[in-house]
Amino acid sequence: xxFSFLLRGLVVGFSIAAPVGPIGVLCIRRTLAKGRASGLAxxxxxATADALYGCIAGFGLTFISSFLVKQHVWLRLxxxxxxxxxxxxxxxxxxxxxxxxxxxxxxVGAYASTFFLTLTNPMTIxxxxxxxxGLGLAATSGSYLSAGTLxxxxxxxxxxxxxxxxxxxxxxxxxxxxxRLQWVNIISGTIVxxxxxxxxxxxxxx
Length: 206
Prior knowledge:
Elements: H1 3-17, H2 22-34, H3 36-58, H4 62-70, H5 72-92, H6 100-103, H7 107-119, H8 123-134, H9 144-170, H10 178-204
């Protein structure tokens, strides 16, 4: 195993995951309202999708990336609608502290939702392709071992970011009572809806 590819993949995965967007908002809200396990499951869903896109870029699967880019309008529409749905669901949620955990859709649902949302963002594959090309990592010279090591690094790097974020947010969870959690729902739900509307408008403008 070439550890230089693992290290570079780790840096790429961490860098792409770090900007706080709708996935970050969802992870923060779920960590505060439902605990670290729900936040971590959400982060792992995004990390898995990042690794999948990293796999497409790392193995040079241009026919898949081309298909995703061509379907970017439909993907944005689907992702935007799903974001709006999640945002309204958060806004309407009644915060009851620990009781929220009983109403959770489950860790699998938390994982699946962020995995799906990350996959519906075609800009992710473009980001990976651009970064891999810039670092001279595209198709990794035909080496499947190097490509696999790179993808593993992407997953580890992305997961490391989510662990850092969720661990940090989790430190403040005990300070959020019913009233504050209700404000978390209002603020995070509004932000997620905003991201969803932006995705819909950008898709419709195409």
